[in-house]
Amino acid sequence: MSASGVRPEIREVMWTEKYRPKTLDEIVNQEEIVERLKRFVKERSMPHCLFAGPPGTGKTTAALALAMDLFGKEYHKNYLELNASDERGIDVIRTTVKDFARTVSMGDAPFKILVLDESDNMTTEAQQALRRTMEMYTSTCRFILACNYYTKIIEPIQSRCAFFRFTPLKPEDVKARVKYICDMEGVEITPEGLEALVYIGGGDLRKVINTLQAAAAIGSKVDDKVIYKIAGRVSPKELRLVLEKALGGDFSSARNEVMRLIMEYGLSGLDVVKQIHREVLWLDVDERLKLKIIDLLGETEYRLLEGGSDEVQLNALIAKIAMVGRGG
Amino acid sequence: MGIPWSERYRPKTLQELVGNYDSAEELMKWVKESMAGRAEKKAALLCGPPGTGKTLSVNLVAEALDLELIEMNASDFRTEEAVERVAGGATLQSSLLGKRGKLIFFDELDGISGREDRGGLGAIMRIINVSKYPVVLAVNDPWDPRFRQLREICHMIKFNRIRTPSIVVRLRRIAQLAGVNAEDEALRKIAEAANGDMRAAVNDLQMLAEGRSVLRAVDVGRLYPRTQEMGIFDVMKGIFSARTILEARAAAEGASVDLDMLLQWINENIPNQYTDPKERAEAYDWFSRADIFMNRVKRRQMWDLISYAVELATGGAALARRGPYRFTKYSFPKRIGILSQTKEMRGKLMEEYVELAKELHASVKKVKTEYIPYIEIMEEAGKGPIFRSAGSKESGG
To answer: Which residues are registered as beta bridge partners of A112?
Structure first.
């Protein structure tokens, strides 16, 4: 009796999925990229690709649409998406990736497509392992590596890929998409609401659509007030509370709050550090103190990446923030 | 002690079972279905703390159905090769003992070691897939990431800690059979101390009552100072009051708990010992360095690094002190308790996130930070999908 039996279909419920373009023709922005990808479809041939760009600019969507256009309805038989953030070890490259890449494509598909999403999170070791795999199975499989920062991809891999740079969506594109969704869903949005959405989103369409859907859930009319209210909510204000308590020297309640967040939201230590980092600049404290906190956050993130455990490293972080908060 | 009472007086039939009777029944039902080729999953995974009847149930089911039991437990080597040799052959041949069939049982899977039992889990997975006989596995902590794949292909059957009154019932019966006249209060004390572990309770009863005709409550009371926890408080004091790293390390070496537990105690008690922000931050800074070393030890089996971790953790805890040692009331690492209590819940949550991640074409990390906060708003507004609660709404409950 798994949860999936009870849950409604995600692709019907979440607007990000419902309105995700299903073919390259539907993609309204990134014209140049789309043109090049369409040529791949026409010629039924493509190189390995590197999709680089900020979050929510259509990298995954473009890969998915390309696969659907190339392979048709049964695309999933020849298409695999792996998320390097979740499965970034060398083992995955050696097993899952290899197993998929080396077997021949099904049906009349000329090759398979393997998407490595968030590939800038792959370890260098894993990238090295990938390099050989990409070469060995070129006849059966094409790789699309999607990433935010292409500089984190090792050069030998960059050199094996055609490079595509995705840029933040232009305000008019965002607006057009929002209006389209509002029409389809029967949502009324005010001009101020639309502007607020564009401002909050900063070219990240995923964020825009999620914010819009949350706003539409709250009231029938979406205006700028509700948009800003949601924007304030989702940068967890609980983490700002943690920061304020720690700075006030209340070590134990700051610590308890962090533990609660970890348990209830399943946040990792890294999630917590990064989210606190987002909050720091908006704090109402001396700018020099902020610098000290940023330094501590960076050190904590580094130690976590070195293999420190969430609980210990976060305790240490809170203790140190409590110290600098007292002018230490 | 002669034959362990837990063995000598073990129930002979399912009907005699005390506690987790439903789980044993479920196992029986599953094995029957599996033999008839009607079981949905290829194997059954029994999960629960020690002494809750997992191994016993398997034995009773095998006996009741007249099956030859092929068992491997933590005392066996469980490399890929060993598993293939012992269980692999058995899965294909008919029973040599003239039984109606076989039951393949991998007990104490928690004990499977990454290094010594290389490839063992993989071999077990393969056997599950090819076996023509039912395969049953037992594990204490099914949420260990090593068992993720296993969880997916197994029918999970949960064994809970056995309630104290049920343990008392069983202890009374055993005392009777052993000819011991035991006071109710004595049995209740033993049962309580066992904390849901029937085997531990029966062992304790044997230790206390074997060779006696009468067991009184006072006999039990005398035997139960919790020596271990007394010890650890002294160890804490020894570490935090040390003046040199050498002293701190020596205090740590006197601990009867293992190193992981000791470190959890230090982690818990740094803020108890140090309320001064500077002292507290310094102790934690050293401790966080020790933590990194411990992780390297575990990840890469670099055992030699342990000494650096111990010295940084204990020496740091001691030398962060600026003034004289202050008497401190040390506390049990309660957070660890909370984390392990909610482990199952968090495990389920994680599984749901993984599922969501697939459908949303995103990483789990992104689901947590870029989707869940919005989904929560939708849910609160009563309009959104009910992702989180979906997991708990099992079997029409």
So the answer is: A141
User: How far apart (Å, rounded) are the C-alpha atoms in residues B286 and B298?
Assistant: 19
- Chain B contacts in chain A segment 236-295 (CB below 8 A): 236, 249, 251-252, 255, 259, 263, 265-268, 271, 275
Q: What is the CA radius of gyration of chain A?
A: 22
Contacts of B68 (CB under 8 A, 6+ apart): B62, B95, B96, B97, B99, B101, B102, B103
Q: What dotted CATH number matches B162-226?
A: 1.10.8.60
Whole-angstrom Cα distance, residue A243 to residue A188?
38
The full set of domain ranges for chain B reads: 20-158, 162-226, 230-339, 343-383
The percentage of residues in chain B with a pLDDT greater than 70, rounded to a whole number, is 83
For residues A170 and A30, give the distance between their C-alpha atoms in angstroms, rounded to a whole number.
10
Please give the average per-residue pLDDT across A252-271, as a whole number: 81
Q: Does domain B20-158 have CATH number 2.115.10.20?
A: no
pTM of the model: 0.52
Q: How far apart are alpha carbons B264 and B291 in whole angstroms?
A: 10
Range with the lowest mean pLDDT among A16-25, A211-220, B91-100?
B91-100
**Residue A270 Cα, gap to closest chain B Cα (Å):** 10
Residue among A55, A217, A320 minimizing CB distance to B285: A320
Q: How confident is the model at residue A263 (pLDDT cuts 50, 70, 90)?
A: confident
Length of chain A: 328
Query: Does the ipTM exceed 0.85?
Result: no
> Same CATH fold, B162-226 and B20-158?
no
Maximal C-alpha separation, chain B: 77
Q: Measure the N-to-C terminal CA separation of chain B; round to a whole number of Å.
A: 47
The Cα-based distances of B385 to B111, B348, B377 in angstroms read 40, 18, 11
Judge residue A31's burial from the number of C-beta atoms within 10 Å of its C-beta, 0-12 exposed, 13-18 middle, 19 or more buried: exposed
Distance, CA of B158 to CA of B15 (rounded, Å): 19
